[in-house]
DNA sequence: TGGGGTTAT
DNA sequence: ATAACCC
């Protein structure tokens, strides 16, 4: 495996002078602007073709071969050997095989292993700093600001080699060792390198990292040098980075819908968005979206790194060409539910809400899903920790009521997706008599709770 | 387009 | 419950 690449700072060598009389480096008394949201150090860590990496770890004999991970008729991701032969992410299996007949395909519809390893990565990163936000299964943001501050305090003035950037610097911008912001980001790059080393040594995974002063810029810069490399963005280069985007649709936070609405306004480049009238943009998109995305266009993003913690929901879905009978639907729902019950059992917490999601067939119209949810009856919740066969039948009954609430089974129907989701997860009953928890836990306190908990009535009631 | 996730309204 | 966003 290649080592993490290193190059020295572009400023004068051994540039730790001038020293303070006390022997401390000059920056020890530099004041970070109070409130400090303006000078954070954020890293974005992005695993290389994650599913393919996991499959190569599980099946080492596949290493070196062009490998694609298949879900239904799509190659959802592939390794770099396959990419060199023309396979792209989300490519049709037939197109991929045509481009690359030697392509090896593995089925990746069961996400269990990916999910497990994904959380191992997040946990590893949390050892560096607890403030880790997941984005999908293969990306994480970490706020390094505090960690960098600690390292700065411990930095000795007689170790000039300590101030060496790790990895690339965007645009080859020289580092100014007299600029405290540069120094802080440089230390962030060293921590990022340590994170990638730990991921490789402990989990066998490679990935990219981007270090910058906010999430947007960290994410954008992490993709500059692509497999298994890292890039640091200095503040003076942030305009170059955002203007390197060819279209606003490449801006994280501007999705499909907003892109279409912006294009209708004649906005297609980042600069178009920067210079467009704020007032008109607010009228068109609403003040919230307008202000947020216009700030993004300047590379400004004050959104915090929000620790993800344990998942807010568990879901399993299956898509298919056609499901048109209630019996068929019930069988599929049972499969989804069985997997979910295992997962929920492992997690330890208990879901208090269950949701059923469907997608109806519609020719050529963009996909839209419908859902119905309800509270899980408390007698079912209580049995959740242990044997899942007790809960299977009553849960299926609940789900089929939700199903019939959405789908008129007396009329012909055509579904292309079914999904079951457990959400509103609550920690196990550690509630003790006399505590707030006790009175807020419906299963424990039986007196005077119908009023307090009437919010549950927002969930639909089924009367059949 | 898969099989997931999140937050805001 | 849906709509938007992310991967």
Outline the biggest β-sheet: 6 strands, mixed
Q: How large, in whole angstroms, is the Cα Rg?
A: 26 Å
Number of helices: 16
Beta-strand portion reads 15-25%
Helix content: 25-40%
Organism: Monodon monoceros
Keywords: DNA damage, DNA repair, DNA replication, DNA synthesis, DNA-binding, DNA-directed DNA polymerase, Magnesium, Manganese, Metal-binding, Mutator protein, Nucleotidyltransferase, Nucleus, Schiff base, Transferase, Ubl conjugation
Family: Belongs to the DNA polymerase type-Y family.
GO molecular function, one term: DNA-directed DNA polymerase activity
Description:
The model is unreliable at 1-24 and 431-464 (pLDDT under 50). The strands form 3 sheets. Strands 6-7-1-9-10-8 form a 6-stranded mixed beta sheet. Strands 4-3-2-5 form a 4-stranded mixed beta sheet. The protein has a 4-stranded antiparallel beta sheet with strand order 11-14-12-13, with helices on one face. The chain has 464 residues and is α+β, with helices and mostly antiparallel strands. The protein has helices spanning 50-58, 80-84, 93-99, 112-128, 145-154, 180-203, 215-222, 238-243, 256-264, 270-275, 278-285, 287-297, 326-347, 378-382, 389-406, 436-440; strands spanning 42-47, 67-71, 74-78, 91-92, 104-107, 132-135, 139-143, 168-169, 207-212, 230-232, 313-323, 350-360, 369-375, 415-426. α4 (112-128) crosses α6 (180-203), α5 (145-154) packs across α6 and α13 crosses α15. It binds a DNA duplex (9 and 7 nucleotides) through residues 50, 70-74, 76, 90, 92, 108-111, 114-115, 134-139, 252-258, 288-289, 308, 311-313, 315-319, 355, 367-373, 419.
